[in-house]
């Protein structure tokens, strides 16, 4: 196996791993001595620097390495990530948002009961995008995590408050009891 192949292996492993990786672990995965892996990493780091690549290799304490975006390109990377974050919402995401907005605070199981399907992935994506957030725990068996919409949700949908949501029932949606509340 030549140095070019070994360097390609290092790049692939570092690219796939979001956290810093120890030289010894990289060497073990490649079945080479740690000194050889160290030399290849330093060569790769030098090559990225000399060619002003968009990538850089960071070397941390504990002899750990991580592939990262060169800070110079941070602004353009931020723009592409913001574009991805602003992708349109799927019908499933809109359903979950409606359930949370009109019934908050709600548990994941409540959302799944209303929709009739597993909604964990959709809830995770909405949490990641900042449209819903955890709102403590409900006073129900097992103390499930409660979810509510965020101020970001209100901004994205042009609402001043939840009272601005279109009516779901005859009464005001703010007066509709959520899962954790009881009617009086």
What does this structure look like?
The strands form two sheets. This protein has a three-stranded antiparallel sheet with strand order 1-3-2. Strands 4-5 form a two-stranded antiparallel sheet. The longest helix has 17 residues, at 34-50. A hairpin with a 7-residue loop joins strand 4 (132-137) and strand 5 (145-149). The radius of gyration is 24 Å and the shape is elongated. It is built from eight helices and five strands. With 184 residues, the protein is an alpha+beta fold. It folds into two domains: 3-73, Winged helix-like DNA-binding domain superfamily/Winged helix DNA-binding domain (Arc Repressor Mutant, subunit A); 91-175, Orthogonal Bundle (Arc Repressor Mutant, subunit A), CATH 1.10.10.10.
Kindly estimate the percentage of residues that lie in beta strands according to DSSP. Answer: 5-15%
CATH structural class of the largest domain: Mainly Alpha
Number of self-contained structural domains = 2
The rough form would be described as elongated
Helix content: 40-55%
Biggest sheet statistics: 3 strands, antiparallel
CATH topology of the largest domain: Arc Repressor Mutant, subunit A
Uncertain runs: none
Oligomeric status: single chain
Order of helices and strands: HEHHEEHHHHEEH
**Total strands:** 5
The structure class reads alpha+beta
Q: Can you give the mean pLDDT?
A: 86
- Report the radius of gyration as a whole number of Å: 24 Å
- What topology, given as strand order, has the largest sheet? 1-3-2
